[in-house]
Amino acid sequence: QVQLTEFGGESLQPGGSLTLSCVASGVTYSTSCMGWVLQAPGKEREGVAAIDSDGTTRYSDFMKGRFRISLDTAKNTLYLQMNDLKTEDTAMYFCATGPAGCNALDAWGKGTQVIVSS
């Protein structure tokens, strides 16, 4: 059974940096994609970044190089490093996993809240 637990969300000012962590269990990394999805208040969930089973990473255009996803399989932890945060980055951030190829995510964490405000 896959379990995902996110950590690291907090309130901070625009321009700041933050790293989110997701501790995973029950994931077979060689056949899985892992990713981060956000949900802003009143909006639909949207993908942020993903890392595929072969290490390939992909990012949503809106991040414009500000975010970086990484996976430490020895620690069973997925990270999202976020730099130059903007107020529009305020959202609940979810860790998720699915089959290799990153076409679908079928297991989710409960999320961690990031608030960017001056």
Summarize the model shown:
This protein has strands at 3-7, 11-12, 18-25, 32-39, 45-51, 57-59, 67-72, 77-82, 91-99, 107-108, 112-116.
Structural class of the secondary structure composition? mainly beta
Helix content: under 10%
Order of helices and strands: EEEEEEEEEEE
What is the β-strand count? 11
Low-confidence stretches: none
Distance between the amino and carboxyl termini: 40 Å
The shape, in one word, is globular
**Average pLDDT taken over every residue:** 96
Number of helical stretches of at least 4 residues: 0
How many whole angstroms does the radius of gyration measure? Answer: 13 Å
Folded structure, characterized:
There is one protein chain. The protein is globular. About 0% of the residues lie in helices and about 50% in strands. It has strands spanning about 5, 10, 20-25, 30-40, 45-50, 55-60, 65-70, 75-80, 90-100, 105-110, 110-115. It has about 120 residues and is mostly beta strands.
Descriptive terms for the model:
seven-stranded mixed sheet, 118 residues, mainly beta, 11 strands
